Amino acid sequence: MRTILLAIKPKWAEKIYSGEKTIEFRRIIPKCIQPGNEIYVQVNLYESAPKSMITGECIMRVQAFSPDGKFSDDILKKGCLTEQEMSRYSRGRGVYALAVMAVRKLTVPVRNAKRAPQNFLYVLEQTSDKYGVYDFNSRGLLSHAKWADGEEYWYSHGNIKRIKYPDGREINK
């Protein structure tokens, strides 16, 4: 499951934590959770100013998409918006309704070491196999590899044409 850092205003975060808001509206969403698939994404909620901290986490998935920003009264109510507020937000453009589940507010908020996201950022992920440990940057591109034999390789901007493993295996991209 991909993890993203999602910027949200403090008033909306509080409504999510209280359970009042179960739908989050967004004009732009990560490619990994586009409509039509049942993909869920782990979300770290970054509350914008004045808090400027990660205050909680949840799971989200696309519940609906409206090309003109018009949703049923039920979906608007779950998102804590009126029809007029949605009209101002969408400005006639497409809007995604993301279902919010498994919400957890952090007891101690975390200051974000990176820059604050304008909308969302992919969170660095790490994976490993018997050959080594691999770090992926926010765009999902390999940025660092540490082989099991101790050698390390750093990749600039994830631009990798060929990866050569210590055992001689190669992957061409």
The radius of gyration over CA amounts to 19 Å
Q: What is the overall shape?
A: globular
Largest sheet properties: 6 strands, mixed
Percentage of residues assigned to helices: 10-25%
Mean pLDDT over the full residue set:
77
CATH architecture of the largest domain: Roll
Structural class by secondary-structure content: mainly beta
Low-pLDDT runs of 5+ residues are 138-142, 156-162
Question: Strand sequence of the main sheet, in spatial order?
Answer: 2-5-4-3-1-6
Give me the CATH superfamily of the largest domain: Hypothetical protein
Question: Helix count?
Answer: 3
Report how far the terminal alpha carbons are from each other: 23 Å
Oligomer kind:
single chain
What does this structure look like?
Helices cover 13% and strands 43% of the residues. The chain is mainly β. It has 2 domains: 3-122, Roll (Archaeosine Trna-guanine Transglycosylase, Chain: A, domain 4), CATH 2.30.130; 125-172, no CATH class. Strands 2-5-4-3-1-6 form a 6-stranded mixed sheet. β9 (142-147) and β10 (152-154) form a beta hairpin. It is globular, with a radius of gyration of 19 Å. The chain starts with a strand and ends with a strand. The model is unreliable at 138-142 and 156-162 (pLDDT under 50).
Features:
mainly beta; 6-stranded mixed sheet; single chain; 13% helix; 2 domains; 4-stranded antiparallel sheet; Archaeosine Trna-guanine Transglycosylase, Chain: A, domain 4; 3 helices; 173 residues
